[in-house]
Specification:
Elements lengths: L2 H10 L3 E6 L8 E6 L4 E6 L3 H13 L7 E5 L2 E5 L9 H11 L17 E3 L2 E3 L7 H10 L8 H12 L12 E3 L8 E3 L4 E3 L5 E3 L2 H6 L8 H7 L5 H20 L4 H11 L2
Helix pairs in contact: 3-7, 5-9, 8-9
C-alpha cells in the first residue's frame, strides 16, 4: 500500500479497494475511492483542502446540498460521494435554484468577504472583509488581476472600476455565495443538485447566477425561480468578468475575448 493510500484508508477508517481518477479537475484533481465496506467516497489532495472543508461545512450548515466532509488531514480531503453527475435536463434547472435558496438565509451582518483567503492554483482569491460590496468587488475581484493582464485589457478593467459603484450596489443582502458556480461545480445525479468545489464568501447572490452563465445557458425558468432584484441582467457581465479574468491568468489568452465581450456589454 502506498503512503497516499494509507493516509486515505486512515481517514476513511476502512481499507481501499479501488481508485478511479475523475474527469475534469482543472484546479485540483479528485478520485472516486471504493472502500472495503462497499461505500464509495471522493478524495482530493491539494494545499487548499482544509479551507474547502470549512466552506463546505458552512454551505451545509445553511441547509444547502453539498458533500459531507468524511475526513481531512494534511493536504487530503475525503468527501461524501454525491455523484456521478449527469447532463443538466429541465428538472436539473428546476433543482439548482432550490439548492441555492438556503444560501440566502446566512445569519450575517452586511459584511462581505470571508475569514481567510483562498486560491485557485496560483491565483489568490482575496477575501478581505468590508462593508462596501462595490469596493470588495473592485479590489478583490477586478483590480487584483490587472498587474497580470495585458496592458490594453488591464486599462479597460481599471476604467470599469472607476464607475463600478454606479453599476453594482454598495450594500446588497449578504448571502453565502458558492463563488465558482459554473456547471461543472454542480453535481446533478438525476434527483438532486449538489454544490461542490466552493470558493465561498459572503456577497451578492447574483455572483452565483452570473457564474452559471459562463459555460452554460440556463433557461428562463432558472432565472424566474430565483426572484432576482430588478436590473440583474445588466449586472451579470460585471460578475462574470472575475471568472473570465481568472481563466485568462490560469489558462491563457484564449479566454481574453470573452472578457472583452463582457467589457463591451458594459460600455468599457
Amino acid at each position: 500500500m502506498s503512503t497516499a493510500e494509507a493516509k486515505l484508508a486512515e481517514l476513511c477508517g476502512v481499507q481501499i479497494v479501488a481508485r478511479e481518477p475523475l474527469a475534469g479537475g482543472d484546479i485540483s484533481g479528485a478520485s472516486r475511492i471504493a472502500l472495503a465496506d462497499g461505500r464509495t467516497v471522493i478524495a482530493k489532495r491539494g494545499p487548499m483542502v482544509a479551507r474547502e472543508a470549512r466552506m463546505l461545512a458552512a454551505i451545509r450548515t445553511l441547509g444547502a446540498p453539498a458533500p459531507a466532509v468524511i475526513g481531512q488531514a494534511d493536504d487530503w480531503l475525503v468527501l461524501e460521494d454525491v455523484g456521478p453527475s449527469r447532463p443538466f435536463d429541465a428538472r436539473a434547472w428546476e433543482e439548482i435554484p432550490q439548492a441555492l435558496e438556503p444560501l440566502r438565509s446566512a445569519d450575517q451582518d452586511e459584511t462581505y468577504g470571508w475569514p481567510e483567503d483562498y486560491a485557485l492554483r496560483d491565483v489568490t482569491v482575496s477575501n478581505t472583509r468590508t462593508t462596501d460590496w462595490a469596493a470588495f468587488w473592485r479590489d478583490n475581484r477586478l483590480l487584483c488581476h490587472c498587474p497580470d493582464l495585458a496592458p490594453p485589457l488591464a486599462r479597460r478593467v481599471e476604467a470599469l472600476t472607476v464607475k463600478l459603484a454606479d453599476i453594482i450596489p454598495a450594500r446588497p443582502p449578504a448571502a453565502l455565495v458558492h463563488g465558482d458556480l459554473w456547471g461543472g461545480n454542480v453535481v446533478w445525479n438525476g434527483e438532486r443538485a449538489s454544490l461542490i468545489d466552493p470558493c465561498a464568501y459572503y456577497g451578492d447572490r447574483e455572483v452565483d447566477v452570473a457564474a452559471m452563465t459562463v459555460f452554460d445557458t440556463p433557461p428562463e425558468a432558472f432565472f424566474d425561480r430565483l426572484a432576482l432584484s430588478p436590473g440583474w441582467r445588466a449586472r451579470l457581465p460585471v460578475y462574470r468578468l472575475w471568472m473570465w479574468l481568472t481563466h485568462v491568468r490560469l489558462f491563457g489568452e484564449s479566454y481574453r475575448p470573452a472578457a472583452e465581450a463582457d467589457l463591451d456589454r458594459l460600455g468599457f
